[in-house]
Amino acid sequence: MKQSHWICMVYGLVIFYISLLSVDGVRWMALAQMSSLAHISDEDNCETLAGLVKRQKKLCKRHLELMDSVRAGAQMAIEECQAQFKYRRWNCSTENDKLFGNVILKQGTREAAFVHSISSAGVAHAVTRACSSGQLRKCGCDKTLRGRSQENFEWAGCSDNIAYGIAFSKVFVDARERSKRRRNKPRAVMNLHNNEAGRKAIEDNMRIECKCHGVSGSCEMRTCWKAMPIFTAVGAILKDKFDGATEVKVKPQDANELIPLNPQFKPHTDQDLVYMEASPDFCEADLKTGSLGTHGRFCNKTSKAIDGCDLMCCGRGYVTRQVRITERCKCKFHWCCHVKCKSCERTVDEHICE
Amino acid sequence: MAHRQARVTRGNWIILFLAVYWIILLRCCYASWMYLGVASLAGSIRDDTCSEVPGLVQQQLQVCKDNPQSLLCISEGARRGILECQSQFRFERWNCTTQRNYTVFGPVLRKGTRETAFVYAVLSAGVVHSVTQACSVGNLTDCSCDMSRYGEADVDGWKWGGCSDNVAYGLWFSKTFVDAPDAVGQNGKTVRSMMNLHNNEVGRKTVEKLMSRKCRCHGVSGSCAIKTCWRGLPAFKDIGQYLKDGYERSVRLAGRAQTKLRRKEKSKRRVPISHEELVHLSKSPNYCKHNPKKGILGTNGRVCNRTSKGAESCDLLCCGRGYNTQVVRHVERCQCKFHWCCYVECKSCETMIDIHTCK
């Protein structure tokens, strides 16, 4: 009796969270906020996940074992977004649940483009990793790579089955944009493009990893396998695409095609991010644009770039406070076997936007 | 004549008054002799040319009247300074843009920022450079080569000869002309005018410091049996580079000065400010956004480098707004071949280059 009461409470909390995080297009990312206690193991759970559209719920039931990977992918995407945007005015914050996008992602800004691409990449990455690690019944390693390669090494080991991860990400993440209601809407076309660009960032940057098997490590025999780039690298690639994103509009004759707003600019490729609306400056908190403002953010006094106090604080100035930090230092190894360290204190200046 | 005077009605007086007021305003806020650097002095210099130049103060007019030919040198010096400024700052957010009006640099110089400091120094150095060069070439009647050491033999066995550049005259001239607007303040020296004077001096000292010995050999088939040397001016690009380095290290001044400039940084107050340090009074704006009131063009549309890390990188130049990409067709002559006799045949090669411009 007591236990069922407790479970009810957990689910109640999850649903509360999800309803707060109603982000258009990437609503399913609410999964990232689920308590890790709530393992998605039952088909009935799928119905309670409020962030999902009908088709996603169906997919959830059919691929129940993948749902934990989807959640992990969403978490990874949010973490990477926050790491890449740590020193920018918009820092991918999810602190205020309503603002990680709710408004911001409704507008087709560059930031929205990035969130879409990284989330779709996150799912593809997490699902592929789960395949490789053998957690899933439906997929395993990529078995198409066999035999001897042109570079004279043997394909062996477990190549990441990126095709499966990408296919699932395509079906699951794109589901909302492919719904009847949103089909052919400019914003849906934009989201689909950016989702695809995110997946391409993994697919086009697959690496070949090798191991040597000769005597005492010599490379007489080499076996290699294909591996995904680490997710931080994917984040960096997408951040680079964010900087050079193309502003687009829908082609007048074809609602499914996007063309650069300014015909003089280079047309975007499948790998590039596209957006439709200019971003706000994110200086002040504004519910309308989804900006949190930069009051209270840390800044770099010496930098002239966007992380510098001048640009980060939007000219409002900053306060400097001294912080004492304690570090382990002068470590010494004692025989055998322990390391003794002293703790050193030093003061560091912190600059905070007014 | 009488007819014309009759037409000077009340309205005309007001316009005249406004015009005079405007000129006074310009004079107070801008070093408007700099206008000579962008204006074209068409044709020859006449006697009344001096009074036609806008914004010269009394002492500058006097210098001009005493030696009208010097106006060409000043103009050339200012132009050299402006071009060097633009070359040194071509990759920075503020790229030393000039306007084709009396203010030259627009409202940017109104504030005593680092950029203002650099402009004053480089233009003052420009005048020294061009006047000194004019002396050596013989374009000015008041000066010629520096013959003070002519004929002296050095211990190393070479002789001073040729035409040593007469930098002393250039320095003196620059001091009398360039310093004039700030030297004759009616209500005492302000910190700002002291800052300008200091930076003018830094520019001049830089020219003097970078003077170098240049030699030539006269022996059989170029051997150095006989060697004559003279002191020559540095290339102006070197002066610009030196001052640009000084710009990066420029010293912020305390807002109130009694009789001497003081550093803002309290811990270094005791350290005197040398004539190698540029000084500024206020912090520079970031020059990111277009702001016509402040004379800032903004970096929208500026070409940036996607891969570099320096000031020209898209990251720094675009202030985080990102960049657009354009494909530009670049046609070059290539695979050139010499045919007997005598012409060269080339093919034209086409390459497509991505150009990035700030959003």
Summarize it.
The complex is a heterodimer of chains A (354) and B (359). Chain A is an alpha+beta fold. Helix content of chain A is 34%, strand content 18%.
How are helices and strands ordered from N to C of chain A? HHHHHEHHEEHEEEEEEHEE
Termini separation of chain A comes to: 52 Å
Q: State mean pLDDT of chain B (0 to 100 scale).
A: 85
- Helix amount of chain B, in percent? 25-40%
Shape call of chain B: globular
What's the SSE pattern of chain B?
Answer: HHHHHHEHHHEEHEEEHEE
Cα Rg of chain B: 25 Å
Oligomeric state of the chains present here: heterodimer
Number of helices of chain B: 11
**Low-confidence runs of at least 5 consecutive residues of chain A:** 12-23
Chain-wise SSE layout:
The complex is a heterodimer of chains A (354) and B (359).
Chain A: H1 2-20, H2 43-48, H3 54-62, H4 67-84, H5 110-132, E1 154-155, H6 162-173, H7 186-203, E2 207-212, E3 222-227, H8 231-243, E4 246-250, E5 258-260, E6 274-275, E7 285-286, E8 291-292, E9 298-299, H9 309-312, E10 318-334, E11 338-353
Parallel strand pairs in A: 1-3, 4-6
Antiparallel strand pairs in A: 2-3, 4-5, 7-8, 9-11, 10-11
Chain B: H1 2-6, H2 10-29, H3 49-52, H4 58-66, H5 70-88, H6 114-137, E1 159-160, H7 167-178, H8 180-183, H9 191-209, E2 212-217, E3 227-232, H10 236-248, E4 251-252, E5 279-280, E6 303-304, H11 314-317, E7 323-339, E8 343-358
Parallel strand pairs in B: 1-3, 4-5
Antiparallel strand pairs in B: 2-3, 6-8, 7-8
Helix pairs in contact in B: 5-6, 5-10, 6-7, 6-9, 6-10, 7-9
How is this structure best described in words?
The complex is a heterodimer of chains A (354) and B (359). Chain A has 354 residues and is α+β, with helices and mostly antiparallel strands. Chain A is built from 9 helices and 11 strands. Chain A has helices at 2-20, 43-48, 54-62, 67-84, 110-132, 162-173, 186-203, 231-243, 309-312, and strands at residues 154-155, 207-212, 222-227, 246-250, 258-260, 274-275, 285-286, 291-292, 298-299, 318-334, 338-353. Chain A has a 3-stranded mixed β-sheet with strand order 1-3-2, with no helix packed on it. A 3-stranded mixed β-sheet of chain A has the order 5-4-6. Chain B has 359 residues and is of the alpha/beta class. In chain B, helix 6 crosses helix 9 and helix 7 (167-178) packs antiparallel against helix 9 (191-209). A 3-stranded mixed β-sheet of chain B has the order 1-3-2, with no helix packed on it. In chain B, strands 6-8-7 form a 3-stranded antiparallel β-sheet, with no helix packed on it. In chain B, strands 4-5 form a two-stranded parallel ribbon.
